[in-house]
Amino acid sequence: xxxxxxxLVAAVAAVLLGSAPAAADGxxxxxxxxxxxxxxxxxxxxxxxxxxxxxxCAAGRAGCTQGTSADGSSFxxxxxxxxxxxxxxxxxxxxxxxxxxxxxxxxNTDWQSNPPxxxxxxxxxxxxxxxxxxxxxxxxxxxxxxxxxLFEPILKGTSWSTTGGAQNDIASTSDYLGTESITVPAFxxxxxxxxxxxxITQAGALGDPYGSGIRTVWWVYGxxxxxxxxxxxGGTGAPVTTAVLDTTNQTPQTPPPxxxxxxxxxxLKGSYKWTNxxxxxxxxxxxxxxxxxxxxxxxxxxxxxxxxxxxxxxYGFTTRLDGVTNLYGTTKSSSLAKLPPLGxxxxxxxxxxxxxxxxDLMIYGFNPVxxxxxxxxxxxxxxxxxxxxxxxxxxxxAVVLGVQTVKVPAGTFKALAVRTTLKQAGFPFGSGTRTSxxxxxxxxxxxxxxxxDGSVSTVELVK
Length: 463
Known about the structure:
Blueprint: H1 11-14, E1 35-42, E2 46-56, E3 74-80, E4 94-102, E5 105-113, H2 137-142, E6 150-151, E7 159-164, E8 170-184, E9 187-202, E10 213-220, E11 224-232, E12 240-248, E13 269-276, E14 280-294, E15 297-306, E16 309-320, E17 323-335, H3 358-363, E18 379-382, H4 387-392, E19 394-408, E20 411-424, E21 432-439, E22 443-451, E23 456-461
Antiparallel strand pairs: 1-2, 1-12, 2-3, 3-4, 4-5, 5-6, 7-8, 8-9, 9-10, 10-11, 11-12, 13-14, 13-23, 14-15, 15-16, 16-17, 18-19, 19-20, 20-21, 21-22, 22-23
């Protein structure tokens, strides 16, 4: 990992005391009194069950280099084997690991500990100053997955790639596999966990192939990781590292819903038909596809099939904890349809947006398109400053109505309805009420925009 403090003294461990329970939520709580105890083993290099106690660092605590930030977005955990009743053969360990909560999820920012036992594989290309170790529960958690350690929002189909290690020489690709009921010593009655599997590759270490393999982590909302299993590379008889949660004062919480109402998935494609009661009575059919995806961001391309608008466009979207956000939209087009102009007046005419595709209608106004974990009653507004207002000059409010049954030519869907009121001063076609329906795993399936000039645009998924 980033570094091991070869001179870390036992005093680090001596101050890691337990404290009273407290309410907690999130995928890794950081309340000041939070504690966890794990037992970990390695089928080849540490066959003696080894208990570690993990606590949240507080400012001034010996061995900790930071406390939890005022808003709780950055925090440090400390672990120790001291006082855990381990057998003499169990490795002694003490260290810290730091995290930052970002819009893309939980990011590991630093770590330090005593060196791993001498019998463990050397996870660097040289013997000297090796900052990598897998001799603890949390080292197995962050191995190869630092930024982020856990991607959020965690939705169906979530996948991300990242690196780790002292020299960023460990690469990984992680996939959310869905939820699964699991029992561990801390929770003998089954609890619901998010299951994340990572394919990890390290090349060039003296201890190859120990640093490579498949790691599975079970995360319980309100608690953190409750089980880690690392199946190291090497074929039959290869080591397996396992860590399980023995005790904690944290309480499992109901995880947020994982329905993905705007999936950014390579290969997703479809066609829409767009009509307007005044200006596109015959309709415009356009197809889209997603061809590039990386860590929750994607590029979507659109092209016309049939109708009076000839267009090729590209749109960028990203999914983060603040929702699905449109990053850009560019089109090359020519049109026989005479649509009314859009504002805002603050921009010259050649810099103003136009409605050429269904996605122009969908993203028009302000971000996010939908929240990360939408629920009925969620609402957000468009302000009078910032990037979106500079582009669109639109004010208004969006609200999540809930899941509704929607029938379109492509089929019948249970779809999340979002209603947005829009006001673009001086431009009635750019004002009105828009309702968009998003189906889990499919994205936009229908949109109805009742414009301020009395016309109505309707978009439906046809295939």
